[in-house]
Amino acid sequence: MSRWRVSWTGYFEQLFKADPPARTLDILGSTVLEADPSFSCEPPSLTEMAQVVNQLMGDKTAGICVYHDVTSTFKKTTIRMKKQNPGYGLHCHRAIITMCKLIGVQDMYAKVSGSTNLLNITRALFQGLGKQETHQQLADRKELHVVEFQDAYGSLPIVVASPKGGARSDPEPEDEIPHTKLDWNEVKASQGMTRSAWANLKRTIW
After folding, report:
1. What is the predicted pLDDT for the residue at 105?
2. DSSP letter for each residue of 193-205
3. Beta 77-83 vs 22-24: how paired, if at all?
4. Which of 50, 83, 169, 177 could cross-link with 66 by S-S, CB 3.0 to 4.6 Å?
5. 134 — alpha (psi -120 to 50), left (phi > 0) or beta?
6. pLDDT tens, position by position, 155-164
7. Tell me: the pLDDT tens digits for 36-80?
8. How far apart are CA 108 and CA 143, in angstroms?
9. Where's the Small ribosomal subunit protein uS5 C-terminal domain (predicted)?
10. Burial, 194: exposed, middle or buried (Cβ in 10 Å; 0-12, 13-18, 19+)?
């Protein structure tokens, strides 16, 4: 067990076991508990907590762990996460930014739709990250090489995973009509339908 995990565990053990001091009000004579009891150790930093999370999850969250675009819904909260190239940063809700820093996600775009309840956002985020498929798992399931394209290399495909049993000879079948899930808000934005129909109306001033 690492020293960061020991520090983290000891801090929260004191947090749950400590009895906060009490004081008596002069007017009402009632007892009010103070919210901040004193502790003998400092809380762990974000770096230490991230290292503990990586150890608990077997280093699966180290570095960039968003393998593909994923949509996750919990109750009335929907999060659409998109993988981005290195250096893009975190462009998402402030709660998602904090959690991504803890688990090691460095580049991601995420849009929250519906309720912005923090508990719902947390559950939806971890459900989405947990149900995604790694490049190696996708290659083994499809029995094909998995490639990705980056702006720095232009149209040159980069092989990121290969099937363990070798790639099959027949290509992946394609439907005549691709089954692509579209977001209606993005469709309206691309068609210029987000603006009001009355935006360009000329009004006569008397």
Report:
1. 86
2. -SS-TTTTPPPPP
3. unpaired
4. 83
5. beta
6. 888 888 889 8
7. 445 455 555 666 666 655 554 544 444 446 888 889 999 999 999
8. 28
9. 73-141
10. exposed
* Interatomic CA distance for residues 164 and 125, integer angstroms: 30
pLDDT band at 171 (very low <50, low <70, confident <90, very high): confident
Q: What is the pTM (predicted TM-score) of this model?
A: 0.57
Q: Find, among 130, 77, 73, the residue nearest to 105 by Cα.
A: 130
- CA atoms of 72 and 132, how far apart (whole Å): 10
The residues spanned by each domain of the chain are 41-132, 134-166
What is the CATH T-level fold of the domain 41-132, as seen in this structure? Answer: Ribosomal Protein S5; domain 2 (3.30.230)
Average pLDDT over residues 167-181: 73
d(CA 23, CA 29): 10
